[in-house]
Every structure is written in structure tokens, then in C-alpha cells.
Amino acid sequence: MSDTIEKIKCLIIGSGPAGYTAAIYAARANMNPVLYQGMQPGGQLTTTNEVENFPGYVDGVTGPEMMVQLQEQAKRFGADIRDGWATKVDFSGDIHKVWINDSIELHCETVIISTGATAKYLGLPSEQHYLNMGGGVSACAVCDGFFYRNQEVVIVGAGDSACEEAHYLSKLCKKVTMLVRSEKFRASKIMEERVRKTENIEILMNHDTVEVLGDSNVVHAIKALNKTTGEVIEIPATGFFVAIGHKPNTDIFKDYITLDETGYIINTPGTSNTNVAGVFVAGDAADHVYRQAITAAGTGCMAALDAERYLASKE
Ligand SMILES: Cc1cc2nc3c(=O)[nH]c(=O)nc-3n(C[C@H](O)[C@H](O)[C@H](O)COP(=O)(O)OP(=O)(O)OC[C@H]3O[C@@H](n4cnc5c(N)ncnc54)[C@H](O)[C@@H]3O)c2cc1C
């Protein structure tokens, strides 16, 4: 552990849209924010080439470019952006302790958690190939569905989110094939009914994804195994959507912060407050519903304003 302890008025953990927006607001409110970027500087958007739904970018923008711009904007107002990873916290006292890279000890008056979430994938080599190519694999129908208008797509998943995303895609795409790995949906009855009733959604129960097929640049079809008959089929598709869940990056907070059963931080509705006074949450770390850059940015703004009001109340 460290010999020196640094005192910080406002610590922001994470450098996605939530963290940088919080940094912009906190810096402009003279809170001298310090932001640690973590292992993925810029967050999830750095893994996508096309962001077309963030207001203000008329012609769209690449994810990495947008995140550099957010970082520059935060720096312009004096936010202190640093490399490093929060490895441990102690939120038991009035002063919130955070350790960076297991060595630097920070004593913070306020902490904004904006550590995001990580989409789960199947892990097939072909899936990872097209994901990295940006050529047809996605974990976000709302983000990428528009690119597959009037085309045929496949979605894998069986929960509420998968049903929600399949239904969203059915409004844009010619046909949606939904692969469900077992004989049952995990989704609520009402969500299952909704996809079952949608004409252009075909549901294949008890099917495993075997391979994502394409010409090495873009996806052409999905190979799937019917586990009941043993038959292997090829489903023509230009897009493959993976909707098997997300993992919020909140493990280090679990001893102090109230999480839901899947690990999302629970905030007081309408605010960014967590169960610990002076610790706030923004972005996907607390959001399993919307999971968008604009909502992350919006809650980043809320967290900075809530932190500012908390500090003012202590004066
Ligand atoms: C491929 C893809 C495409 C997408 N496309 C769009 C789109 O077009 N439009 C849209 O609105 N949304 C899109 N999204 C969703 C969007 O990226 C997220 O909703 C948004 O990035 C969430 O922002 P966030 O700030 O909460 O967290 P994230 O972007 O997830 O960032 C989390 C940050 O926390 C850091 N971190 C995590 N743990 C620690 C720790 N212990 N210490 C320090 N730092 C830590 C990480 O390094 C990272 O910087 C897409 C997502 C993906 C995966």
C-alpha cells in the first residue's frame, strides 16, 4: 500500500460518456475532478466505428473520435485525466477511500462511479472475427439495427432483453430469426408472447449457434445446430445480434454499495445517489434498461450536479 495519501474532492472512476460528462460538469463547477480511465480508455464506444444516434453529430462519428472529443472537452475545463484502475474501495467512513492499481491511496469527499458494463458474447472465433471487423456482429440492436434495414438478421438470446431487441429489429428488418438455446424462454410470458405474435420473427427453440459465416469481411449467414434433430442449418443473414446479457463492472463496490441480483448498482430513482452518502453512480453501471451513450452522458451530468450539491450541503 502507498506511503502518501492524496486528497480528492471529486473522483470519477471510468472514462466512458458517463465519466467524461461528469468530468465536464464537475470541472466547470470548480470541483477539481480527477478521472481514472481504467483498462478501456474511452469505454465501450471505442469498439464501434459508427455512432449515428448521439445528438450533435449530423453525419455520425466514429466511437474513438467521439470519445477523444469528450476527453478534450473535459480537459479544457481542467479535469485531471489519469491512467489507472480502481482496485479496491472502502466506503465505510465519511471519507471515501479508493486504491488505484493496488498502490495509490485516494481519500475522496465524493466519488462518481461510471465503470460501465461489458456485453457478453458467445465466444465463437467466427463471432469475434466479425465483431472485430465491424462487419455484422453486434450486442446492441438499438445502436446497430438501423444498419440492417430491410435485411435479414439473426438474434441469439432468450431473456427479456433479447425479446425486446428482437421486437425492435422486427420493425426495421425484413426477417428476424431468433435462436433460443434451450426449450424454454427465460423472458417473462408477456415478452415471449410479443415475439411469438410478431409475423416476421421466426423462433427456433433448442438451437445452438455453430458459426458465423461470411466472406471474411461481412456476414452472410449463421450456421446453427438443431439440438433436437441434430440437423445443421444455414440461416441467411447480414447481421448477427448477441443478446445474452451484460456484466456490470461493479465487483469492487459490492461490499459497500447496494447492487441488484445481476450486479447493477441501485440508485435512488430520479437521482444518481447510491446507498452511500457522497458516492454517486452514472451510466451503464446502474442501467440495464437503456444502455446508450446519451443516457450515460445524461446521468453523468446528474452525478456531477448531485455531487456538487452534496459538497455544498457539507460546507
Ligand atoms: C459495440 C458497441 C456499439 C455501441 N454503439 C452505440 C451507439 O451507436 N450509440 C449509443 O448510444 N450507444 C452505443 N453503445 C452503448 C454505449 O457504448 C454505452 O451505453 C456507453 O458507452 C455507456 O457508457 P458508460 O460511461 O456508462 O460506460 P462505458 O462506456 O462502459 O465505460 C466504462 C469505463 O469505466 C472504466 N472502468 C471500468 N472499471 C474500472 C475500474 N475498476 N477502474 C477504473 N476505470 C474502470 C473502463 O475503462 C471504461 O473507461 C454501444 C456499445 C457497444 C459495445
Please sum up the structure shown:
The protein is α/β, with parallel strands linked by helices and 315 residues long. Helix content is 26%, strand content 27%.
| Poorly predicted parts | none
CATH class of the largest domain: Alpha Beta
What is the name of the CATH topology of the largest domain? Answer: FAD/NAD(P)-binding domain
What is the count of β-strands?
17
The percent of residues in helical segments reads 25-40%
H/E series, N to C? Answer: EHEHEEEEEHEHEHEHEEEEEEEH
The CATH architecture of the largest domain is 3-Layer(bba) Sandwich
Cα distance, first to last residue?
31 Å
Structure in words:
- This protein is an alpha/beta fold.
- It folds into 2 domains: 183 residues, FAD/NAD(P)-binding domain; 122 residues, FAD/NAD(P)-binding domain.
- It is 26% helix and 27% strand.
- It has 7 helices and 17 strands.
- The strands form 4 sheets. Strands 1, 2, 3, 4, 5, 6 and 17 form a 7-stranded mixed sheet that branches.
- The relative contact order is 0.18.
- The mean pLDDT is 95.
- Flavin-adenine dinucleotide binds next to helix 1, strand 7 and helix 7.
- InterPro entries: FAD/NAD-bd_sf, FAD/NAD-binding_dom, Ferredoxin-NADP_redctase_2, Thioredox_Rdtase.
Brief descriptors of the model:
single chain, about 325 residues, alpha/beta, FAD/NAD(P)-binding domain, 2 domains, seven-stranded mixed sheet, five-stranded parallel sheet, 17 strands, about 25% helix, binds flavin-adenine dinucleotide, Thioredoxin reductase, redox-active center, FAD, oxidoreductase
